[in-house]
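Pasting as-is:
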Amino acid sequence: MASAMVEDTSFEDDQLANMTTEDIVRASRLLDNEIRILKEELQRTNLELESYKEKIKENQEKIKLNKQLPYLVGNIVEILEMNPEDEAEEDGANIDLDSQRKGKCVVLKTSTRQTIFLPVVGLVDPDKLKPGDLVGVNKDSYLILDTLPSEYDSRVKAMEVDEKPTEDYNDIGGLEKQIQELVEAIVLPMTHKERFQKLGVRPPKGVLLYGPPGTGKTLMARACAAQTNATFLKLAGPQLVQV
């Protein structure tokens, strides 16, 4: 290999020795031109690289924003295989891009009782989905952002209080009559269930507390949950529609 390099060098030296001054100047100009073109190409490539980095950063921010909770819970109804039509569209005709997509698409039903067709699934591999799966979708675009365990329901999870209520009826003043009615309707049937069964008394299914804000409704409910060792769920009226 060393001998080959020596031969190439000697050949170039001989070729250079046979060149005239004009040939050398011309070759030098050609090399300068090639160097300039390569520098311009390198500069253009660096600019494209910076542009791609900015696009990647922008898309990552969009994905991060779209993946922010809360998700809308959806249920996979059907998975379809998209086969675009083989016939070419006429020139100037309107082209439906969704009909030209290849791969799998999804039909899902959301917790708002909407049925949505997704030609683009989202961030989850469609091959990993099957009918009946629970998924978290974006509340605006309905793109699937994550899969949820089958026993998981984000609506209930969002309502559940992590800390057990510690309030007591002694913390509530001026509602002795309401507290007594609450104890008779809710607490006693839960703490002395066998007595109600023995007497054949059917306890009410629930109690409606009503009144202006700040009158102790939530405090009574928390005290009731603490006394019965029950899970306390707090939810707004619109959430009842989704349950």
